[in-house]
UniProtKB/TrEMBL annotation:
Similarity section: Belongs to the glycosyltransferase 20 family.
InterPro entries assigned: Glyco_trans_20 (IPR001830)
Stretches that traverse the bilayer: none
SUPFAM superfamilies documented for this protein: UDP-Glycosyltransferase/glycogen phosphorylase
Name of the molecule in the record: Trehalose-6-phosphate synthase
Origin species: Dongia soli
Length: 455
């Protein structure tokens, strides 16, 4: 079988791969079992971007990385990727910053990726490129005479034409996606948005429900949701529930019900709305005072981007406001952490949590929702509260689905979850467990690569 070449913006070192909650490395576990080359940025910043990769060969997995130059990091990563494309694809036009020098840096870095990767490629490789940082990479590789099968997978939402209109280089970005053989999305809605944009901006023609003709190329668009290894995560949750950390957590609760939220510190996650909703819970349903404790883990990210610095300040203030208003000498209602925790530890916390809060304003999928369900004890399961704007909501409709822009609705959902009868919790959990196991990480890898190898 042909070698698989995976390309992502960042390649996590082996020590990090199993510790992150969710993430590409966890989702790709199935794909990494074969003959694989994984190429991307090392995470290191140098004076100039290197085009000679550092290669680490394993038994079956070979990792090749390059360092990013200071200016490329500024324009490619902080600039166009995370200050332009990220807010655009999350429908947040008020947060979008566009600078031509950032876009030029984005194109340059993709060219540098192609220049470093091309000499490592074999004619029969299958190349699978991931996420919004690397949209132009297929076009750049083809300029290096690489004509292998190339697929792209977008892990975040894809914007409709009405949103895409705000991007000055929309035509070039959408046309770059049409240089792939297969383009994958999390949801059917994202796939439809892409196909509409391809027609409007790239002059593509629809030849079927899944296929576009763009110039001399044919591109297939598919919706294949990312998943997790639910059985492995369930075992980890059960094992972790007996750990000393889990026992410390239970002792600290003193019999109170636990509400848990785990997110990156990002404005797309709806954390300010969530904190406001938690405050309204006690105003509107005072019977829950002293009876619950909410743990929010929000690991810091993209700290060089000013929007993220401002968000952290806002959340620090809101946390203090909630605790200042409701705390008692023996009760802190909101526990808020901005450092990451190991997946194994989080698995145990999910299992003991009566409520899982997953309320992003917009999200490609959200694997925390799936991890929370996988971790549950079927005899006494917790309740998932899920934003209608998370990709997971397309299939996980047995969660309590909410509009994250309405703090009162979130507060009502928390009250509903805290008071839900055992029989209803078990019925919802059983349906959600089926979905999480059907839409596994292994199924995502197999189905995505089947589409790519068939083209």
């Amino acid at each position: 079988m042909a070698r698989l070449v995976i390309v992502s913006n960042r390649v996590a070192p082996p020590s990090e791969r199993q510790q992150k909650a969710g993430g590409l490395a966890v989702a790709l576990k199935e794909a990494l079992k074969g003959d694989v080359l994984w190429f991307g940025w090392s995470g290191q910043i140098a004076k100039e971007t290197s085009t000679t990769p550092t290669i680490t060969e394993g038994k079956r997995l070979t990792v090749a990385t390059i360092d990013l130059g200071e200016q490329d990091y500024k324009h490619f990563y902080v600039g166009f990727s995370n200050s332009t494309l990220w807010p655009l694809f999350h429908f947040r036009l008020g947060l979008l910053d566009f600078l031509r020098e950032d876009y030029q840096g984005y194109l340059k870095t993709n060219e540098d990726f192609a220049a470093a990767l091309a000499p490592l490629l074999r004619p029969d490789d299958v190349i699978w490129i991931h996420d919004y940082h690397l949209i132009p990479l297929a076009a750049a590789l083809r300029r290096h005479n690489q004509m292998q099968r190339m697929g792209f997978y977008l892990h975040i939402p894809f914007a409709p034409t009405a949103i895409m209109d705000a991007l000055p280089c929309a035509e070039e970005i959408v046309s770059s996606l049409c240089d792939y053989d297969v383009v994958g999305f999390q949801t059917e809605a994202d796939k439809r948005n892409f196909m509409a944009c391809a027609v409007q901006y790239a002059g593509a023609e629809l030849t079927s429900d899944h296929t576009l003709s763009a110039g001399k190329r044919s591109v297939r668009a598919v919706a294949i949701p990312v998943g997790i290894d639910a059985d492995a995560f369930a075992k980890a949750a059960e094992a972790s529930s007996g750990s000393k950390e889990a026992k410390r957590m239970q002792e600290s609760l003193v019999g109170r019900k636990l509400i848990v939220g785990v997110d990156r510190l990002d404005y797309s996650k709806g954390l300010t709305n969530r904190f406001e909703a938690y405050s309204r819970l006690f105003d509107r349903f005072p019977q829950h005072r002293l009876k619950v404790s909410y743990l929010q883990v929000a690991a810091r990210s993209r700290e060089d981007v000013i929007r993220y610095q401002n968000l952290k300040r806002d959340l620090d203030r809101l946390c203090g406001k909630v605790n200042g208003k409701f705390a008692e000498f023996d009760w802190v209602p909101l526990r808020y952490m901005t450092r990451s925790l190991p997946r194994s530890l989080l698995a145990g916390f999910y299992r003991s949590a009566h409520v899982g809060l997953v309320t992003p304003l917009r999200d490609g999928m959200n694997l925390v929702a799936k991890e929370y369900i996988a971790a549950q004890n079927e005899e006494d399961p917790g309740v998932l509260i899920l934003s209608k704007f998370a990709g997971a909501a397309e299939s996980m409709d047995q969660a309590i689905i909410i509009n994250p822009y309405d703090p009162d609705q979130i507060a009502e959902a928390i009250h509903q979850a805290l008071t839900m009868p055992l029989g209803e919790r078990q019925a919802r959990n059983k349906a959600l467990q089926t979905i999480v196991r059907e839409q596994s990480a292994g199924a995502w890898c197999r189905n995505s690569l089947m589409e790519l190898r068939a083209c």
